[in-house]
Amino acid sequence: MRGAMSENVLRGLYSAALYLLAPVTVYHLIWRGFRQTEYFQRWNERYAAYREAPPGPTIWVHAVSVGEVNAALPLVNALLARQSQARLLITTITPTGSVRVRALWGERVLHVYLPYDLPGMVRRFLVHFRPRIALIMETELWPNLLFGLRETGVPTYIVNARLSERSLRGYRFVQPLLRRALRSVRAVLAQSQDDADRFERLGAPTPAVTGNLKYDVAEDPDAEALARALRVGLGARLVWIAASTHPEEEASVIAMHRRLRQRWPDLLLLWAPRHPERFRPAIQQAIDAGWQVATRQLTRMPAPDDAVFVLDTLGELAALYRCGDVAFVGGSLQDVGGHNLLEPAAAGCPVVTGPHLHNFIDIARQLRAAGALRIGADADAVAAELEALLGDPEARATMVGAGRALVEHGRGALQRTLAAIQTDLD
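Above: the chain's sequence. Below: its structure in C-alpha cell form.
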C-alpha cells in the first residue's frame, strides 16, 4: 500500500508539473516554427487529437529523430518482412525524423508525432492506436507513457538502449518515479554492458545486452548509385566531409577548410549540417569566405570549380560518406555528445571527431581501439588530423579496413533483438 501510494504521489507531482508547463509547449512550437516551419504543422498529433483510427492493433516503434530512425531501420524492415496482420506505427518527435520515416517507408507504415507525456494525451494515444507491443528506441523514458503502457497491458521493450553517465545524472530528479516505471518494462535490450549497468542503476531489472542495431544497417542500393555518380563527377579531387555539424562548430568548419585548401587548392568540402534550419547559414558562411558554393537542392552535383557542396537534403549523408576521403563527424566539438560514428566507418570513410562523445562512448572506444577513429582535442587538433589523413593514402586505407572489419564483427544485434521480443510479436 505504501509503495502504491508513493507511486501515486510521485506521478501526481510529476503530472501536475507538466500540466503547469503545458502552455509553454505552445510557445516552444511557435519558437521552433520560426526556425523550421514544419513545427507549425500537425499540432493535433502532439496533443493526441486524431481523426480516423487504424483498422486494427499496431506494432509500435518510437524513434525520437533522424538518428533513432536510422538505428531502427533494420528492425523496422525485419518487422515489415514478417507480413504481420498488425499495422506498423512509427512515432517521432522531430520533423526531421518524420521526413526520414516517410522517405524510408512511405505509406507502408503509419506515422504520427508522439504526444506530450500528460496522462490524458497518453491515454488517448494508446486507445486510438491500440499497440499490441511497444518498442521504444534508445533513451526515450517518459514516466506517464510507461505507466500507461503498463495499465493497458502492452508489453514494452527499450530497444537498442543506451544511457550515458551524463543522462543518468540528468534523470536524478525523477529517478524514484522512473525506477517504478521501468519495473513495468518487459526488457531493456542494451547496446553494451556499460549501458546495461547504467540502466540497472536507474532501476531497470536485469537489462540484457543485445548489441547495437546500427551495425546491422544493410547496404542501400540508392545510396551506392548516388555515391558512384558523385564520385565520377569529382574525378581525382580530394574530398573531406563535415557531417552533422552544429551552430557553434560552423566557424571551425570554415577555418578547417581554409587551412586545408592552402595545401590542396582544389579540395572540396561536402558539408551536411545536422538540422535543416542551418542549411542556409552554412551556405552563406561559405559564400562569405569567398568560395564558390553549390547545394544538393540547387545544382544536384558539385561543379569542378565549386569549393563547397552543401547537402541541404535529408537522408543522403550515407551516400556522401561513400565518396569522401575523410569525414569529420560533428556534435563533438560542441558539447552535444557526438553523432553516429558507425555510418561513415561502414561506408569506408576514415573518421575524425572532436572530444565530446558522451553519447557514443562505447562505439568511440571500439573504433579507436581498432584504429578506425581519430579524436582531436579541439578544432585545431581535428584540422591537423584531417590534414594528416588527406596527405596519407595508406593511413586512410588502413582506417577503412579497420572500420569495415569492426562493423562486420559487430553484426547480430538485429537477430538477438528479434529473438528477445519474439514471444510478444506472435
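The chain is about 50% helix and 15% strand.
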